[in-house]
Amino acid sequence: MDPRVSELFGAGSGLKCAAPGHGAAPGAGAGSALGMAPRKAASKNGKKMKSRATRNTKPSNNPPYLPPEVSHRTAVKPLLKLVNPTQYRFEHLATQMKWRLQEGRGEAVYQIGVEDNGLLVGLSEEDMKASLKTLRRMAEKVGADITILREREVEYDSDVPRKIAEVLVRKVPDDQQFLDLRVAVLGNVDSGKSTLLGVLTQGELDNGRGRARLNLFRHLHEIQSGRTSSISFEILGFNSKGEVVNYSESRTAEEICESASKMITFIDLAGHHKYLKTTIFGLTSYCPDFAMLVVGANTGIAGTTREHLGLAMALKVPIFIVVSKVDLCPRGTVERTVRQLERILKQPGCNKVPMVVAGADDAVTAAQQFAQSPSITPIFTLSSVSGESLDLLKVFLNILPPLSNSKEQEELMQQLTEFQVDEIYTVPDVGTVVGGTLYSGICREGERLVVGPTDEGNFLGLKVCSIQRNRSACRVLRAGQAATLALGNFDRSLLRKGMVMVSPEMNPTICWLFEAEIVLLFHAKTFRKGFQVTVHVGNVRQTATVERLHGKEELRTGEKAVVRFRFIKHPEYLKVGAKLLFREGVTKGIGHVTNLQPISLYQHDS
Fold this sequence. Notes:
Helix 11 (360-370) packs parallel to helix 12 (390-399). The N and C termini lie far apart (65 Å). It is globular and about 80 Å long. It is of the alpha+beta class. The chain is built from 13 helices and 32 strands. The strands form six sheets. The chain has a nine-stranded mixed beta sheet with strand order 19-18-21-14-13-22-16-17-32. An eight-stranded mixed beta sheet has the order 7-6-8-5-9-10-12-11, with helices on both faces. It has a six-stranded antiparallel β-barrel with strand order 23-28-26-25-30-31.
């Protein structure tokens, strides 16, 4: 890439396509000063690229280019026409913006001063103001707000300074249809996970003795020991203008939901090794979009850090790293911890590209590249006590795009209803309540579903009385969303974690026996028939016995095989292709389900 292009946004993020969605907008033939920026680019060190670009750039009459957007576009229109667009052109651009917001599930990034063929023309100060004004009018027309992410000057022969700007357009929320991303928080015990979440969600810095984390703990022994042992959820919102919405200005979760256009749900997991099964359950069951690995700057990579990194990679969850407690140690120690992380991430087993975030430009670039390239791993260094670099993490989370586009979401919603049961409660005056994730379909208040499998492999009929998302009432639940469902006076003793609630029309596959293609990550001796392991598949967690190893008598560390497992307690609902993770003591392995042997008996008990 031309170094002049690389220097524009500090880290080579010459972005050129619209929302995080795919394809070109309808009627995209109208060229404009508003080139559409994608969330995809090559990652490079911003400062090095900038200095190198400045050193090597000579005056030239050739303006820099970005890669042209791949689409069937007609001729490019002059840029200045956008300053005073005709009514027809304005309507055309507004329609285009609406489509792009729909594709990006409520978000799109525009780059002002870029033609459709990738030419970085830039605009004068006056034209830039007029273009931003037009963009703001377009956003208001489609019910959205705009936020300027960053501005840069285009360096080539010109008497008048010219700029390009990157603008985030985000839809104003309506009827709880905010963009919701789930982030699992991993890391060793005492690395500062809960404290960091407390600071982000409560809006107040920690006092250095753990005050910020007290609101996150669910049990007395957690408060006394300062260690998380259960899974807790915390929410951080961003409004349509990109401003943080948390408990510092809102008293309840309902108020946060009402004013937020984008919601980050943090899943706070346990760091101690004796709670590993809880951590694995949180990663497999709650389907996080991203994982945040917290590493203490003073301790470095210790305890369960490597194990948690390995779990996230085995489950193919994109991961970014936060080095916390930088206020406790000198700069040299922080840099040594970062170098240690970079060395591990570059190893053959990881094959990651670490990207240290040093400024706001880096944070914007990291967010745009992270969701598109699984190899990019942003690294933040911050303090929950002094607040150092905390804003960079907020900028990153604000811009972070969803992994799936609207088309994939629509396809899931058209399937039959399937809700995974992860938590079970009894609430006074409400009755039995289940928490979990809607894997597919749509669930409404008053809908009749069946839940199972029971120990005998049956399914029981029930009615959904009410739904809550992020602790506020909701009438309709869509695929991919997490919620709690009230089941009225349904007997709680008939429910357990790992069950599914499905549409009565579905014929779910219930099995005792299943086969999986596995890789044995570690085993002290030999893995053979009769060995018992704890199997994690989605929200299913149960002990299973190895019935058979196809084509082999035994397995050793690093070897692959197709293995037949049998659940020892009750049958489970599984799907072919589901990711599988098993463990027993130091024994660990991963794989995927290849074959199911369904039980012949299937019936509904109403």
